[in-house]
């Protein structure tokens, strides 16, 4: 006979099982510094859905945009500690662990988007990503195109001489300071979140970023000219903590797969956006200036093969030999 006492015991067992099942699902944390309106954020929200599906609900992921978990340096530190599971970070930050991998963030090391795409699928990149992992412990899940960087200012920048004395905001990394230094400008490191106000108040004269970033950060509201220097072919790395992969076991590969799958379409989306934004900016009354890049490339070229760069001649030559 099925007694009331047995029914209570059975309900308690079911409740305990449900609680155990609930505990078994773990939510990972993905942090980045970009706005929620960007395709980078949308890609990682999609990655969270893919992860949950691939792991049959064992894992999901919450995505924190706009520096909610800290600025980029703090996110990189948190990744090593395992307090953040995965992040977007710039190649220059990867270079703090393994210098040569920062090469793609230096001016005019990439000829085009197609050259960049061939590079991130090359043996050269695989080797450097492996060295980065050996040193940092972190795993690069995938790379995403961020865009070609252009100079914005309140005057046309058509030749290196137009950069002379210009106080230009740059990220605090040598890769971004090379172009201004080579052309006589004064690079001024500043946090990303502070740039709009600094331009508005005249603290700096100029800044440089890809067209989608210029749009979503609204820099065109406080700068009259966008000069198509295309001096850096920029990218973001999606990087995963060794602590996270260690605790996930076989599910770690499913996380890497979800991140790569979700990010795959973002690069093409950014390329399409760049093509459309020139007309959009002109419709807003901004001067978008076509630039002869050759004189700028000539100014930078000697610095790329000097003894002051974090790669050797062989890596530079292998990169240039990659065919797009």
Automatic annotation (TrEMBL):
GO terms for cellular component: outer membrane-bounded periplasmic space. The keyword Oxidoreductase does not apply. CDD domains: PBP2_TRAP_Siap. It is found in: Periplasm. Residues 1-21 form the signal peptide. One of its GO terms (biological process) is transmembrane transport. Keywords: Periplasm, Signal, Transport. The keyword Transferase does not apply. It comes from the Bacteria. InterPro entries: DctP_fam, TRAP_DctP, TRAP_DctP_sf. Belongs to the bacterial solute-binding protein 7 family. This is Neu5Ac-binding protein. It comes from Thalassovita mediterranea.
């Amino acid at each position: 006979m099925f007694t009331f006492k047995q029914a209570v015991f059975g309900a308690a067992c079911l409740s305990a099982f449900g609680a155990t099942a609930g505990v078994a699902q773990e939510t990972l944390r993905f942090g980045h510094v970009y706005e929620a309106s960007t395709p980078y954020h949308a890609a990682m929200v999609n990655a969270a859905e893919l992860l949950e599906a691939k792991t049959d609900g064992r894992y999901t992921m919450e995505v924190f945009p706009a520096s909610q978990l800290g600025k980029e340096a703090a996110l990189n530190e948190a990744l090593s500690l395992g307090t953040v599971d995965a992040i977007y970070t710039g190649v220059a930050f990867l270079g703090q662990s393994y210098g040569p991998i920062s090469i793609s963030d230096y001016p005019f090391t990439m000829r085009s988007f197609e050259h960049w795409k061939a590079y991130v699928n090359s043996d050269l990149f695989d080797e450097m990503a492996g060295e980065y992992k050996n040193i940092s412990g972190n795993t690069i899940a995938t790379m995403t195109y961020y865009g070609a960087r252009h100079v914005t200012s309140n005057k046309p920048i058509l030749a290196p001489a137009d950069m002379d004395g210009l106080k230009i905001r740059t990220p605090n990394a040598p890769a971004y300071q090379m172009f201004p230094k080579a052309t006589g400008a004064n690079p001024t490191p500043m946090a990303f979140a502070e740039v709009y106000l600094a331009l508005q108040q005249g603290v700096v004269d100029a800044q440089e970023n890809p067209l989608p970033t210029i749009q979503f950060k609204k820099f065109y509201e406080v700068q009259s000219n966008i000069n198509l220097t295309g001096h850096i072919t920029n990218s973001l790395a999606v990087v995963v903590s060794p602590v996270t992969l260690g605790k996930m076991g076989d599910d770690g590969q499913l996380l890497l797969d979800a991140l790569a799958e979700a990010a795959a379409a973002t690069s093409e989306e950014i390329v399409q956006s760049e093509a459309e934004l020139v007309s959009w900016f002109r419709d807003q009354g901004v001067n978008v200036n076509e630039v002869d890049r050759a004189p700028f490339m000539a100014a930078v070229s000697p610095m790329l093969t000097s003894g002051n760069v974090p790669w050797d001649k062989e890596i530079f030559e292998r990169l240039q030999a990659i065919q797009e």
